[in-house]
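Researcher: Structure prediction, please.
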Amino acid sequence: MIKLNIHTAKTHLSKYLSKLKPGERILLCKRNQPVAEITPLPEVPVRPRPIGLAKGNFAVPRSFFEPLPEELLRTLEGSHG
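Model: Predicted structure follows.
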């Protein structure tokens, strides 16, 4: 168990969280009186996102790759004239 006063936690919490191991806890204290506990959550396995989930659902038109009209470019650049 790691015991921290609130001031120390505000200053160094990320350092202590990185050292926290499964089963351990951080006990937050105010004037040396416990007020809260921080416990690590179980790690969620991260699966890679599959590529091409929307393949075949839509087609990108050729016009997408064409230059934007001058009027739209002026609007986007903040030119009004």
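Model: Strands lie at 2-5, 26-30, 33-38.
Researcher: Thanks, that helps.
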